[in-house]
Amino acid sequence: MKKIFKWLGILLLFLIIIIVGLGFYAHESKPVGKITPEADAMAQKMLAAVDKPAWDSTQWVQWTFRGAHDFLWDKSRNFVKINWDDNEVLLHTKSVTGKAFKNGKAVTGDDANEMVQTAWAYFCNDSFWMNAPFKAFDPGTSRRLVTDKDGREGLMVSYESGGTTPGDSYLWFLDSDGLPTSYKMWVSIIPIGGLEFTWEDWKTLPTGAKVAQMHESSLFPIPIDNLKSGENFGEFGETSDPFIDLK
Predict the structure, then answer these.
(1) pLDDT less than 70: residues of the chain
(2) Which of 16, 85, 119, 186 could be stapled to 30 by a disulfide with Cβ–Cβ 3.0 to 4.6 Å?
């Protein structure tokens, strides 16, 4: 038995060494560029390709992130309903306050606060994968034209503040019309710099805004399912305003 554990330990160590080695090999240092009018022009081209005015006029959006988190977002009032496992949170995205429920029963106190913070973190991350192109000029952002290690020129958008992980940067690659095809990431939660995900399977919402429904990488896919927009809660099967208690 001791020999078995010994060999399992050696195997585990070997796997860790391989993973660390692959991570070191795949890691890419973040390119350095200058803030220029040309970078802003490329960002504006991207916004035009995805139709940011149409996104701004979109009232309600529903989506599922990686089959795990379900969202119903009332953009006009900054309310969002987040469901995962047996949890539900009704969140005000500006004040980061809300109401929490577990198995349909209200949760209070520290447990409720913890659920609200968890829901906020999910919303920040999962909505970014759905609407990141529209956020190129958010407060606290900077834009640079840079070239990656393969010689591809792209638009680096850095988030100096906001959300739950300020300091993250994304290098966008666009097609000839300005529509994103992929981006590379330098983010605090992933130790490998330059990990690339595609932006594909674009869906045009009724308002005209374009949203990518699939992100592929060398490690795992990130699908956006059940994507739908509307003008009121009734279009999503809600018989009454789900946020009435947050008013």
Answers:
(1) 1-26, 162-165, 247
(2) 186
Distance spanning both ends of the chain, measured CA to CA? 63
User: The tokens 């081209």 sit on which residue?
Assistant: 45
Could you tell me which residues are beta bridge partners of residue 65?
69, 224
pLDDT of residue 68: 97
Contact (Cβ atoms closer than 8 angstroms) between residue 172 and residue 179: no
Total-model pTM:
0.86
Torsion of CA 151, 154, 158, 164, to 10 degrees: -100
Strands (E), the chain: 60-65, 69-74, 79-84, 87-92, 97-102, 105-107, 141-147, 153-159, 169-174, 180-186, 195-198, 200-204, 210-215, 222-230
Task: Write the CA distances from 167 to 127, 158, 159, 160, 186, integer angstroms.
Answer: 18, 7, 5, 5, 9
| Ordered strands of the 105-107 beta sheet | 105-107, 97-102, 87-92, 79-84, 69-74, 60-65, 222-230, 210-215, 200-204
Contacts of 139 (CB under 8 A, 6+ apart): 161, 162
Show the tokens assigned to 68.
């795990």
pLDDT of 123-173, one tens digit each? 999 999 999 999 999 999 999 999 999 999 999 999 987 655 678 999 999
Both tokens of 214, joined, read 């699939």
pLDDT for the residue 165 = 65
Residue 46 near residue 133 (C-beta atoms within 8 A):
yes
Query: 28 phi and psi, to 5 degrees?
Result: -125, 130
- Structure token digits, residue 15: 């796997």
**What pLDDT does 15 receive?**
32
